């Protein structure tokens, strides 16, 4: 479908069952509101990014930990249906599978609570073994919904093999020096950027953050698109395709998965970021998380737009 080289991506990260409530507005403290509808879906930043990369045509391995509960069963079935390799997804009876209660208000804005559960029990050894064992790895992706030490271990193994590493520092938190030392691309949204840089993502702030951390940076900016600092000394801003937002849940993950695929498939960083914008814009036009990600003709259109 893509006409690009088959990309090979490892995602070290979380799985969640999304429990999504749609309501007119967020309730005040102590207030009860009637919602419009409810949906149960598959989520977790790691899982979302893996599914998006897989839809674009990548071979994707997921490194994760789920419970021995029904949510764990459902998560594994969903990965298999999406074509994601689950060889390195472990199971534990010591904790429940991760869950994410989500509120989506009119206009598409969302608020999310993440309960990691089994995600917190993923180990450094599991991440290292997975990345070291897979034949040829182009890009390894991580986030903050599993322990940073686990992601750092996987990234070290990736660097030893010559693979690129992409870190989505979400939810917002300080980044450990060990993890920064093996990160090639840092991909914060506006909230995460301000947490790290202490300012909004102006061109100067983006280049300063990249220089301070010794990384390349893509700042995702919601409906304003993205800003890319690829090490050339300049910042490229990308305006996304126009769309009407229904539900922004998972849009950032669609961007990260698509960007990571673009890098792995040989696109320039700017073209990869354009692909991320196109996939994220397509996602917000539909309700849900993974269920909102573009497929088939939408993906062909996104790739064409990215490479224009």
Automatic annotation (TrEMBL):
Question: Which residue range or ranges hold the Carbohydrate kinase PfkB domain?
Answer: 7-295
Q: Which reaction does it catalyse?
A: 2-deoxy-D-ribose + ATP = 2-deoxy-D-ribose 5-phosphate + ADP + H(+)
- Would you tell me the Gene Ontology cellular component terms? cytosol
At the top level, the lineage of the source is Bacteria
In this chain, ATP is annotated as bound at 189, 220-225, 252-253
| Feature type site, description Important for substrate specificity | 16
Tell me the protein's name: Deoxyribokinase
**Swiss-Prot/TrEMBL keywords:** ATP-binding, Carbohydrate metabolism, Cytoplasm, Kinase, Magnesium, Metal-binding, Nucleotide-binding, Potassium, Transferase
MF terms from GO for this chain are: ATP binding; metal ion binding; ribokinase activity
Q: Which gene encodes it?
A: deoK
What family does this belong to?
A: Belongs to the carbohydrate kinase PfkB family. Deoxyribokinase subfamily. Belongs to the carbohydrate kinase pfkB family.
Subunit-level organization:
Homodimer.
**Which InterPro entries does its entry note?**
Carboh/pur_kinase_PfkB_CS, PfkB_dom, Ribo/fructo_kinase, Ribokinase, Ribokinase-like
- Where it mainly occurs, coarsely classed, is cytoplasm
What's this protein's function?
A: Catalyzes the ATP-dependent phosphorylation of 2-deoxy-D-ribose to 2-deoxy-D-ribose 5-phosphate (dRib-5P), allowing the use of deoxyribose as the sole carbon source.
Where in the cell does this protein reside?
Cytoplasm
Q: What class of enzyme is it?
A: transferase
User: What Gene3D superfamilies does this protein map onto?
Assistant: 3.40.1190.20
Q: List cofactor names only.
A: Mg(2+)
- Tell me the Gene Ontology biological-process terms attached to this UniProt entry: D-ribose catabolic process
PROSITE patterns, per database record: PFKB_KINASES_2
Presence of keyword Metal-binding = yes
Q: Where does substrate bind?
A: 16-18, 44-48, 145, 253
The active site lies at: 253
């Amino acid at each position: 479908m893509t006409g690009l080289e088959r990309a090979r991506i490892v995602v070290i990260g979380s799985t969640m069952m999304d429990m999504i409530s749609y309501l007119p507005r967020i309730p005040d403290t102590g207030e009860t509101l009637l919602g419009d509808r409810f949906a149960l879906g598959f989520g977790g930043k790691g899982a979302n990014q893996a599914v998006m990369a897989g839809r674009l045509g990548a071979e994707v391995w997921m490194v994760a930990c789920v419970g021995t509960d029904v949510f764990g069963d459902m998560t594994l079935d969903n990965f298999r249906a999406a074509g994601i390799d689950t060889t390195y997804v472990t199971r534990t009876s010591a904790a429940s599978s991760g869950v994410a209660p989500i509120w989506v208000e009119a206009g598409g804005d969302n608020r999310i609570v993440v309960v990691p559960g089994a995600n917190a029990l993923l180990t450094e050894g599991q991440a290292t073994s997975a990345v070291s064992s897979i034949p040829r790895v182009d890009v390894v992706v991580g986030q903050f919904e599993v322990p940073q030490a686990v992601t750092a271990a996987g990234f070290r193994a990736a660097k030893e093999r010559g693979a690129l590493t992409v870190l989505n520092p979400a939810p917002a938190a300080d980044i450990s020096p060990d993890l920064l030392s093996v990160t090639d691309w840092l991909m914060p949204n506006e909230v995460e950027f301000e947490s790290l840089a202490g300012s909004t993502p102006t061109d100067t702030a983006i280049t300063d953050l990249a220089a301070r951390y010794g990384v390349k940076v893509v700042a995702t900016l919601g409906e304003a698109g993205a800003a890319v600092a690829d090490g050339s000394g300049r910042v490229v801003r990308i305006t996304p395709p126009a769309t009407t937002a229904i539900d922004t849940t998972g849009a950032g993950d669609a961007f990260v998965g698509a960007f990571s695929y673009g890098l792995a498939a040989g696109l320039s960083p700017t073209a990869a970021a354009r692909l991320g914008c196109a996939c994220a814009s397509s996602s917000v036009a539909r309700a849900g998380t993974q269920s909102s990600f573009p497929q088939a003709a939408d993906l062909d259109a996104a790739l064409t737009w990215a490479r224009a």
